[in-house]
Design a protein that fits this description.
Largest sheet: none
Number of strands: 0
Helix content: 40-55%
Order of helices and strands: H
Number of helices: 1
Distance between the termini: 66 Å
Structural class: mainly alpha
Shape: elongated
């Protein structure tokens, strides 16, 4: 039982570390489309 628990614990740690390294090194492309949104004057603070 302890060997199975040790295996799954190591597996979870490896997955978490691998996911962290992947997210830290992944170059996410920024959005290229400009966003234009009209905000009515009533919604702006006075």
């Amino acid at each position: 039982m302890s060997k199975i628990l040790l295996f799954f614990s190591i597996l979870v740690i490896v997955i978490l570390v691998g996911g962290g390294v992947f997210l830290a090194t992944w170059n996410v492309p920024s959005p290229n489309n400009p966003i234009e949104k009209v905000i009515p004057n009533a919604q702006l603070g006075k």
